[in-house]
Amino acid sequence: MSSPRITRPHFPPGYVERARELLPWSHVEQRLTHAINYWLCTVRPDGRPHAVPKWAVWVDGKLYFDGSPATRHARNIATNPHVVIHLESGEDVVIVEGIARAIDTPAPEVATLVAQAYTTKYATMGYAPDPHQWDNGGLFAITPHTVIAWTAFTEDPTKFVL
What we know:
alpha+beta; Pnp Oxidase, Chain A; 9-stranded antiparallel sheet; 3 helices; 9 strands; 20% helix; Split_barrel_FMN-bd; oxidoreductase activity, acting on the CH-CH group of donors; oxidoreductase; F420H2_bilvrd_red/Heme_oxyg
């Protein structure tokens, strides 16, 4: 994955006046790698929003999550792949906008990396997937195109364009 373009998000005049610095991309990657719960936001075919908490892993510049293709969010992604996913904190914020897609049969090396990342993060909570469990679907990948992050809203709001 190439390095993102880093800039300040657009704000109305006077909204963020003390902005001092921009966050490094490494901060975003660290937060996406170590977070436990992620909020996935999709859009139903009739235009209504849908949000669901997910477990996920950050591997090679993509966020992977799994689940049944019959879920509401999977069906939403099948008709509209544009998603937002964000972490739980309202103070150390990471909001990812991107394109999600179902992976019908992941490449063996991708499945292995994703399974290892899940096991490292979630084994103590009872989840350690086998890489072959996604051979017939059930794995999804989000490719981010824009990320907004901050640790102090008026001081370091940062926009990453990928």
